Amino acid sequence: MQGFGREVILGIGGGIAAYKACDLLRRLKECDFAVTVVPTPSSLNFVGTATWEALSGRAVTAKVFERVDEVRHISLAKLANFILIAPATADLIARIAAGRADDLLTNVVLASHAPVLVVPAMHPQMWNNAATVANVVTLRGRGYIVMDPAVGALTSGDVGQGRFPETAEILKVFQQLTNISLDLQGKKVLVTAGGTREPIDPVRFIGNNSSGKQGFACARAARDRGADVTLIAANTSLDDIPGVRMIAVETAEQMLEALTIEFPRTDLLVMSAAVADARAKTVSASKIKKDRYDAIELVENADLLQSMAPLKKSQVIIAFAAETSHDVLAAKAKMHSKGADILYLNDVSGGDIFNSENTHGEIFLVDSDSLKVSDTSKDTLAHRLLDQALLKLG
């Protein structure tokens, strides 16, 4: 989802609290927001351009007349889905309230229609000054969300209201602004993704076409909704997901071992991996030559989902069925025989869906009517499946 509806401009005001915004930036990226930092020129006295570029992975400019060919104040304003200004000094608040445009950040604010969250940090006397109070009232009247500073010790040695709020508090307000629900907060979610590979010899294996994209989408969605997420990934080329605990496996037996350990401490299992049904009875230690490659004796792998049944207590299980036809009877039979609460059926005939960004199929529920899924992104499907799981979790 990164880069689609999740673009954040992080404005940095020229106060000592600028260094605390480094942790805020890290947490935003863990939540899969794409962040472009726009510091005021004075803020660079506290935290430099190199730090912001290293943390965000993006170019950083502070002045309107830098990278003029990009028309940065307009291109950034168009890019932004949300603007978060943290810290906001008394001067920066005053300039925004007055409609000034004397650096890149204030230009971007003027040119953007994105929702804005302002996080003030300053000395208590400056926060309580009549001018600042009036400026905050002005910004709130325009629809900006302006947090109140925290109370505590200040750099000056004084104590009062003016401290930069804790990162968790800022994120809580920011999540309200972005309308991203944390309805899975406190829940442990376990996801399997990818396709297992069963070795035949050192160069050959039994495998499948699963890319792992749907499982990774489910893991990201659960993380974004506040869950503690563990992802067991088999043979994918996808990047690790920040904020998600990753366990890499190759074979069905390795995945079963990881599931046996992780499942008992899980609230929700999303079993999206494509697990090989069989493996070679004997794995050759050396490459099998063509003239001897006439037959492979197979043995059946354990059914991973059924293997979890004796361990299931109050967990909710989401299963997947990839068929080469829309076989409703097979999907329902699989759901009931394997103890799944929710099952997603998709038709992968003709190579459809595998390695695609989109999917289509049907969601089956153990105790209510099924839900048709027309062509949609795998990210969207992930959230629809989690919505149904939440109903089961209560």
Describe the secondary-structure layout.
Blueprint: E1 7-12, H1 21-30, E2 34-39, H2 49-56, H3 72-79, E3 82-88, H4 90-97, H5 104-111, E4 116-120, H6 124-127, H7 130-141, E5 145-146, E6 150-153, E7 159-163, H8 167-178, E8 188-194, E9 198-201, E10 204-206, H9 213-224, E11 228-234, E12 245-249, H10 252-262, E13 268-271, E14 278-280, E15 298-300, H11 304-308, E16 316-323, H12 328-337, E17 342-347, E18 358-365, E19 368-377, H13 378-393
Helix pairs in contact: 1-2, 3-5, 4-7, 9-13
Tell me what the structure shows.
- This protein is α/β, with parallel strands linked by helices and 394 residues long.
- The protein has helices at 21-30, 49-56, 72-79, 90-97, 104-111, 124-127, 130-141, 167-178, 213-224, 252-262, 304-308, 328-337, 378-393, and strands at residues 7-12, 34-39, 82-88, 116-120, 145-146, 150-153, 159-163, 188-194, 198-201, 204-206, 228-234, 245-249, 268-271, 278-280, 298-300, 316-323, 342-347, 358-365, 368-377.
- The strands form 5 sheets. An 8-stranded mixed sheet has the order 12-11-8-13-16-17-18-19, with helices on both faces.
- Helix 3 packs across helix 5 and helix 9 packs across helix 13.
- The longest helix is centred in the C-terminal third of the chain and has 16 residues, at 378-393.
- The radius of gyration is 26 Å and the shape is elongated.
- The model has no long low-confidence stretch (mean pLDDT 89).
